[in-house]
Amino acid sequence: MKHKTDPVTAVLRKPRKCPQCGGKVVHILYGEPSVEGFEMAERGEVALGGCIVWESMPDYQCLGCGQLFRKVHGPGLYMD
């Protein structure tokens, strides 16, 4: 997963394309990836997010510019 200085963008659902650059937005896969997880990342189906996981981590990432997105439930209410 690319690290950015820009804040994570709150969204109600996964964007079809990145509002920043128009790139493909994919789910972020957290934890130790399996062989299948690595293959999915190489095909551009997911982004790898690392093994250390905590609350309020981003859910999606743009493969073009690295913009991160976190799914929220209503205005400012984060999903658990």
Brief write-up:
The chain is mainly beta and 80 residues long. It has one helix and five strands, in the order E-E-H-E-E-E. Helix content is 10%, strand content 26%.
Give an overview of the whole structure:
By secondary structure, the protein is mainly beta. It has one domain (9-71). It has 1 helix and 5 strands. A 5-stranded mixed β-sheet has the order 1-5-4-2-3. A hairpin with a 5-residue loop joins β4 (60-62) and β5. It is globular. The chain starts with 8 loop residues before the first strand and ends in a 9-residue tail after the last strand.
List its salient traits.
1 helix, 80 residues
Furnish the topology, listing elements before pairings:
Elements: E1 9-11, E2 25-30, H1 35-42, E3 46-50, E4 60-62, E5 68-71
Parallel strand pairs: 1-5, 2-3
Antiparallel strand pairs: 2-4, 4-5
Mean pLDDT: 87
- The strands making up the biggest β-sheet line up spatially as 1-5-4-2-3
Note the beta-strand portion: 25-35%
User: What is the total tally of β strands?
Assistant: 5
- The topology string of helices and strands comes to EEHEEE
Radius of gyration: 12 Å
Distance between the termini: 21 Å
Query: How would you describe the shape?
Result: globular
Helicity level: 10-25%
The number of helical runs is 1
Strand count, sense and barrel status of the largest sheet are: 5 strands, mixed
Kindly name the structural category: mainly beta
